[in-house]
Amino acid sequence: MGYSIETRCLHLEEEKKGDIYGAVSFPIYQTATFAHKGVGGSTGYDYSRLQNPTREQLEKTVASLEKGIDALAFSSGMAAIATLMECFKPGDHLIVDSDLYGGSIRLFQNISEKNGIEISSVDLYRESAAEYVKDNTKAVYIETPTNPMMNVTDIRKLADFTKSRDLMLIVDNTFLSPYFQNPLELGADVVVHSGTKYLGGHNDTIAGFLVTGRVDISEKLRFLIKTTGAGLAPFDSWLILRGIKTLALRMERAQENAMAIALWLKEQEHVTRVIYTGLKENPGYEIMKKQARGFGGMLTFEVDTKEFALSILNHVKLIQFAESLGGTETLITYPITQTHADVPPDKLAANGISDRILRVSVGIEGKEDLIGELKRVFQLAKEENYG
Ligand SMILES: *Cc1c(COP(=O)(O)O)cnc(C)c1O
């Protein structure tokens, strides 16, 4: 039953509403408010903070890709996560993955804790959540694979546990996108996305999503988005809709390029570690094969010295030295000064995030060109550091 994921990137199973002229590209309803035909005559849309047809089309598309009953589009991934945190109250306790997107760690430690929410950081890919559950525990929050160390958590196993204890399981699925992984099908209650990354996919706008398969959570989140107002604007909703049209193609190509780069890196003498979940020797490989349809386009590697890492960053041209991920262009990131700059040093050390770690978001360029670029940059780094 139902369309394949490739088709669901382009078409909703239900009839497309909202356009009388047969536009193939869904229109941008750039309006703040909607006129009523008379008392009790709402068109179904009243004010764009609550809902707007373009945002609704995007939300239905993302809900369909993640197999949820509802998806909500926010002005950023962080706005989505911050809104989700409003589901909890002072005195509640959350167990969160210790290797997370730096911005999520910053939110939990600086905002959630200030609001009276107790946070325990745990390496959930190897430690059991059961040992950290208390009477006031309300949820478990993970990313898999994690950023940037690509640790893989068995979602179904964790979901069996959270269900048995009536805890909400939240999975940030940004790294694999719904094309490769659907946590709700594995038992998660809420899926988080930074829509800025693979869903938008073109490094041109910021967005975020919460998706759920539960009516009670959907109702809570709808109340929150209406009340706190971080919903995505119509034009940005349209950009993400447009990006999603090519999600399947982009994910396949990024993965193919990532595998080629991972294999090339493994052969390099100054590379001390290549972390890509698609490599058989990766500790997460078997779980990934069980719970995901692919390995994605993100990889991390370690070089032998900090100086070598800095040389790489200083010499890249085709590959750009920038934060973010999941777009058409290949980006290289230095987690220690960029995405993870606000993470306490003890936490960085515990996660193995050193000044020799580099993260690559592999794009959809020609793989010969990407490997050619790396060869050039590695040669320059060698000359600079080893004479
Ligand atoms: C980027 C990112 C976020 C935050 O999303 P923004 O759109 O930048 O606000 C959250 N989680 C992960 C895994 C991310 O990569």
Features of this protein?
387 residues, alpha/beta, binds pyridoxal-5'-phosphate
Q: Can you put this structure into words, describing what you see?
A:
The protein is of the alpha/beta class and 387 residues long. The protein has 13 helices and twelve strands. It has a seven-stranded mixed β-sheet with strand order 1-7-6-5-4-2-3, with helices on both faces. Strands 8-9-12-11-10 form a five-stranded mixed β-sheet. Helix 6 links the parallel strand 5 (168-172) and strand 6 (190-194). The longest helix is centred in the middle third of the chain and has 20 residues, at 247-266. The mean pLDDT is 96. Pyridoxal-5'-phosphate binds next to helix 3 and helix 4.
